[in-house]
Amino acid sequence: MTYLTVPITATNLREVGExxxxxxxxxxxLLELRLDYLEKLTADSAAQAVDLAKGIGLRVLATCxxxxxxxxxxxxxxALRNILAAACRAGxxxxxxxxxxLERSGQAIPQFTPLSPERVILSYHNFExxxxxxxxxxxxxxxxxxxxxxxxxxxxxxxxxxxxxDILRAYQSQGQQAIALAMDEPGVLTRLLAxxxxxxxxxxxxDEQAASAPGQVMLAEMKNRYRWxxxxxQTRLLGIIGWPVAQSMSPLVHxxxxxxxxxxxxxxxxxxxxxxxxxxxxxxxxxxxxxxHPAGFSVTIPHKQHALDWVRRKGGYIEPLxxxxxxxxxxxxxxxxxxxxxxxxxxxxxxxxxEAPGMSRxxxxxxxxxxxxxxxxxxxxxxxxxxxxxxxxxxxxTIEKAEMLAExxxxxxxxxxxxxxxxxxxTDVTTTQPTLLVVNCTSVGMHPNVQHSPLPAEVIxxxxxxxxxxxxxxxxxxxxxxxxxxxxxxDGRTMFLHQAAAQFERFTGQTPPLDLMHRLLEEK
Length: 524
Ligand code: NAP
Description:
The chain is an alpha/beta fold. The chain is 38% helix and 19% strand.
């Protein structure tokens, strides 16, 4: 069993009681009493805190973390031993002892009656980064205890997580349990995959204020979004690769879809730093570890083009459409070890356009269309529009990119400064049909820069149909101007929904629960 452990980080006994109740109600499986957080910490208050925790009916781990290991305890060794001894007499089920303290004192783990030595968790923390002597540290730890060892270090990049996952895998295959985790956002997968790899426990926080280490996922998210209860050894690993990814709605939508369809997978935010070498290192790391059961990955800014190159280098399958677009937003890891690249942005964008009232493939033919932007999203949108025979002009801040794209897709290009002349033909009062389709494929207007628009309000007129691929916020400044001018609008969430649904199908081979996905996006 991997215990879902909630650190209790209250500063007084009244708050301890409150946090304990919230943790139990939220589904905690083990309570870590962080005694070092108590402002009036004595042997007595430590015993009272353990008493309170035992009253909850869950297992208890008592920890008094020293300042040097990221905690708040600054007392001496004798004071520490008195506190820990009191916690043991009060009946704690497990006790955390720091390797650093033992090595400093040159002593063995003390006997804390009535706690048996197997109930001691020997811990090592590194807040700088992944130590290069991790094997040596584990070896030294094994010399001290027959019990569980815990290593926690700061992940500087997502690939630093592999060391912790490798430790869990090695202990699991020897029938032993360990706790190994990489702290901070890039290490989040070590916290969530702990159960899959049979770790002794993983730590989750009640809320952001109560977190005891960087990168802890909240208890409610762990239980609901990440489906803690259904994670098992065969659970497949999926996620969104990008930088940043914290704001992404993909984990919400895909995990909920897995629950509804019964697919055994967990979909995580995977913060892969912008450098191409980081992407390659991470994808290579996944490929080398089939026991993680990597199954499928959404790819977002800034990795779409390089993800395609990676699959090409691995000799994988590239869907012709993704090859033509030159960007992959979907990677599938096949069961036989092969990898494939797809692009579902094309379908997402075209479905969103064709769902607009009065729009059809026929009406798109020859329709003057301004695409703003020349990045990954623009490539997919332009490919779709050119296939539908729309009359496309590309506008981009960096004109050279617009020119290259126009040549590649056989359409026109113009400098972004020409956008102010878009509405010059005026409003055609004889038709209710859009006479110009405008698609924003830049990140202008995206959270947090919500006050920006790629087009000034004066340029927008009633005969335009404005599609903003930005989906956060749902009504961008551009769409707000469009609505005010009486123009038709298409928001980025419609595209998001369709591209995510197509990804789900690629990942799982199942029909996507479109209604559920749509409802979740609306609620969000
Ligand atoms: P990308 O490859 O990095 O391209 C970004 C584009 O935005 C480039 O053309 C860039 O111009 C332009 N740009 C960036 N900042 C700008 C600024 N301040 N002023 C003018 N132009 C600027 O990114 P991407 O993958 O194409 O994504 C672009 C947008 O599409 C994002 O907002 C994303 O949310 C959205 N998107 C939405 C969906 C969906 O499902 N709704 C799917 C994919 C993408 P330069 O060439 O001059 O740098």
